[in-house]
Amino acid sequence: MQRTLIVMGPVQIIGFCLAITAFELITYMASDMIMPAMLSVTDEFHADARHVPNAFNLYLIGGVCLQWLIGPLSDRYGRRRLLLFGCALFGLACSAAVMTQRIEAFNALRLIQGMGLGFVIAVSYPTLQEVFCEADAVRLMALLGNVALLSPLLGPLLGSLLLEWLSWRQLFLGLGAASAIIWLALLAWMPETIGVVRRDGQQQAPAPFSLRQMGQRYLALLRNRSFVASSLALGLMSLPLIAWIGLAPVLLMQRLELSALAYGLWQIPVFSAVIVGNLLLDRLLADHSLIRLIELALWPFCLGLLLLIAASLSPTSLILTVAGLALYALGLGMSNAALYRLALFASDDGKGLVSAMIGMLSITVMGGGGTLIALIGGGRSLQSFALWAALGGLLCLPLLYRLLRNSSSAPATPNAPQ
After folding, report:
1. What is the pTM of this model?
2. Helical residues (DSSP H) of 134-194, grouped into ranges
3. CB 56, CB 246: distance < 8 Å
4. Which of 73, 94, 74, 58 is nearest to 172 (CA)?
5. Per DSSP, what are the bridge partners of residue 197?
6. Residue range 186-211: average pLDDT?
7. What does residue 329 show for φ and ψ, rounded to 5 degrees?
C-alpha cells in the first residue's frame, strides 16, 4: 500500500492512479498513434510533407500555451475540476478532427489537443506529488511514466496496424470515445488536494488568484537559478527523443521508403530503453539520492549521444542511430523523474504554478528545438538528424553541471512531508 498524505481507500488509490495514467497515455497516443497516418493526412489535404513534423510540434506548443493559467487556477479552485475540464476539452478536440477538410483546421485542432498535455503536466503531476510522500511520488512518476511510454513504443505500431482497417478520422473518433471513459473515471476516483487536511495535519489552502500576483510569482521563479536550470535541462535532455518522434515518419517512411509497420518496429528499441531506465530508477531509488541517480544516468545518456555523432559520419547509419538513441534513452529514463522532482521542489510556491512553469520552459525547449532541428535539415537524412539531435541533447550538460554542483554542496532536497 502506498503511504498517502490524503485519506484514500485502496480502491480509490488504484482507480486514481489508473485514471491519471490513462489520461497521460491517451494524450501521448493522440500524437504517436497518428504519426504513421500523417503522410496520408497531408496527401488527402494536398499539403506539403513539412506539415508532418509541424503538426507534432504544434501539439507540443499546445501543451505549453495554457499552462501559465492552468497551474495557478488549480492552486485556487482545486486540481480535480481543472483536470476534468482538460479531459473534456481534449476529447472534444479529438472528436472534432473527424470533420476537418483543410490542413489548417487539422493543425489548429492539433494545437487544442496538445492542451490536454498541459493539463497532465500542470494538474495531474502536482496532484501525485501532494497525495504521496517523496519516495512513493518519485517511484510512481517513473512507473506510471512507463505506461505513458507505451504510447511512443506501441503507438506507431498500433497506428500502423489499425490503419489497415480504419481511416485516420476513425482513429481520432476512437480517441474521443476513450477520453469520455477516462473523464468518468476521474470523476469517480480523483481526490481533491487543495483545502483538504492531510494525515500530517497540514492543509494546502487555496492560493489567491490575481493576474498581477501570478506574474510576480512567475518572475520570482525565473529568478530562481536552480529551478530554471533544472527545467531547461529537462527540455534539453528530452530534445533528441522529441526530435526523433517528430521526424521519424519522414526519415524512415519517406526517405528510406520503409513500410508503416517497419517504421513502428524501429521505435521499439528506443522506447523500450526508456522503460528499462525507469525500472532501474525504481530499483536504485532506495539506496541513492536523487542527485546521485542523475549522475549515474549521465553515463549512458552521454555515451548514447556520442554514438549518435558517430552515426552522423556513417553512410549506413540506421542501426547506429537507433542504437545511439536507445543508449541515450536509457539514461533519460533513469533521470527524468528525479530531475522533475528537483525542479518542482526548488521553490516553495504553489505546486500547480511551479509545475506549470516547468512544463512551459521544458516543452518550449522541446518544441522549439524540434522545430529548429527540422528547419536546419534534420529531416533530410539520418546523418543530419543524428548530428543535430546529439548536439541539442549535449547542451543540457552545462546546466546539469551547475545544478549538481550546487545541490551537492547544499542541504538535502526538500521532501514532501512524511
Report:
1. 0.72
2. 134-148, 150-162, 168-189
3. yes
4. 94
5. 203
6. 70
7. -65, -30
Handedness of CA 311, 312, 318, 322 (dihedral sign): positive
C-alpha grid cell for residue 179? 477520453
Q: 67 near 119, Cβ under 8 Å?
A: no
Phi and psi at 293, nearest 5°, equal -60, -40
The C-alpha cell that represents 167 in the structure block: 481511416
- Candidates 241, 81, 85; CA nearest to 148 is 241
Q: Which segments of 345-395 does DSSP mark as H helices, in order?
A: 351-373, 382-394
pLDDT (tens digit per residue) in 384-404: 999 999 999 999 999 998 888
Q: How many CB atoms lie within 10 A of CB 47?
A: 18
Mean pLDDT to the nearest integer, 12-16: 84
Distance from C-alpha of 404 to C-alpha of 295, rounded to nearest angstrom? 8
70 and 82 in contact (C-beta within 8 Å)? yes
β-sheet bridge partners, residue 203: 197
Find out whether 328 and 308 touch, Cβ atoms under 8 Å: yes
Contact 19, 182 (CB under 8 A): yes
Rounded-to-integer distance, Cα 375 and Cα 366, Å: 14
Q: Report the chain's terminal Cα–Cα distance, integer Å.
A: 15
Output the CA–CA distances (angstroms, integers) from residue 259 to 14, 37, 251, 256, 266, in the order listed.
39, 12, 12, 9, 11
Q: Which domains does the chain have, with CATH numbers?
A: 10-147+157-187+214-404 (1.20.1250.20)
